[in-house]
Amino acid sequence: MAGRLATPRQSWRDVVLEAKDAPERVPRVYTRLAPVYEAWARATESKSRRRVLELASVRPGEDVLEVATGTGVQLVRLARANLGGRTVGVEISEGMLAQTRRRLERAGLTEEVEVIEGSALELPIEDESVDLLVNGYMLDLLPRDDIPGALAEFKRVLRPRGRLVLSNMTKGERRRHRIWDWAYGRGLVLTANCRGVLAAPVLRELNFVGVSREYLSQMLFPTEIVTAHKEGR
Ligand SMILES: C[S@@+](CC[C@H](N)C(=O)[O-])C[C@H]1O[C@@H](n2cnc3c(N)ncnc32)[C@H](O)[C@@H]1O
User: Fold this and answer.
1) Best exposed site among 31, 101, 155, 187 by fewest CB in 10 Å?
2) Is the residue at 1 inside a domain?
3) Rounded to an integer, what distance in angstroms lies between the CA atom of residue 171 and that of residue 2?
4) Residue-number span of the structural domain to which 46 is assigned
5) How far is the CA of 100 from the centre of ligand 1 (A)?
6) d(CA 80, CA 133)
7) pLDDT above 50 (res 2)
8) Ligand 1 interacting residues, C-beta cut-off 6 A
């Protein structure tokens, strides 16, 4: 099962491996990884980060939220594209928050961008206040049962017609891209604790509209980029 995409008769729950790490451990793990995380991300995620920005097509003056800012690379890019708008980042790990804040300082963006410590499962953000929500490589860390909860929370904060751009480690679509999930299934955690997930079927279950998915790989690491928006006039 581990290497396969869901067939029409299967649920995403049948093919996505269960998360190995307890969610309460994740912030500590990422605080430990924070000083070295960017080297991994550059090697495996730089292509997808660029594509996410293209698909996000930020319109200056928007309310933009990034959830799970990590080292802050994408948050800086979003803020630069969102001149005159409001850009906010939410992140759960203290170590990653410190990286984000440092990067914003170096970019001279501390006044323009607000960074909040918080969880995707209970966002410290008002209902229907966000035009664009970006989230990268976080759903692939959550227990299966928390994935719909996080996406429902994203939906709560989006305005009607608000846009969502997700990137996740996903199920490998070529044999050699499955090496990471193969290792994860055998207890070899090589991927900063993430495993392949499928967000599009969950978004459809939650009645997001215009759900669309692209697949890409970098260093054999399989990524999905999923875009959708909240229903509304
Ligand atoms: C693999 S890193 C990705 C970071 C960044 N989005 C990127 O693409 O470089 C995953 C990030 O998700 C954060 N995270 C994990 N669970 C979270 C949660 N429930 N709420 C907010 N952030 C979370 C981690 O602390 C970590 O910074």
Assistant:
1) 187
2) no
3) 8
4) 13-229
5) 11
6) 15
7) no
8) 26-27, 30, 41, 45, 67-68, 70, 91-93, 96, 119-121, 136-138, 141, 192, 194
Q: What is the pLDDT of residue 191?
A: 67
Atom 26 of ligand 1: nearest residue by CA position: 70
Instruction: For residue 2, tell me if it sits in a domain.
Output: no
Pick from 25, 28, 29, 30 the residue to mutate for probing ligand 1's pocket: most ligand atoms within 8 Å of its CB.
Answer: 30
Q: Is residue 8 included in any domain, yes or no? A: no
Q: What percent of the chain clears pLDDT 70, i.e. is strictly above it?
A: 96
Q: Amino acid letter at 42? A: R
How large a percentage of the chain has pLDDT more than 90? 84
Q: Of 4-8, 37-41, 77-81, 135-139, which gets the smallest average pLDDT?
A: 4-8
Strands across the sheet containing 63-67: 113-117, 86-91, 63-67, 130-136, 158-169, 221-229, 209-218
| 85, two tokens | 């708008």
Q: Average pLDDT, stretch 23-39? A: 93
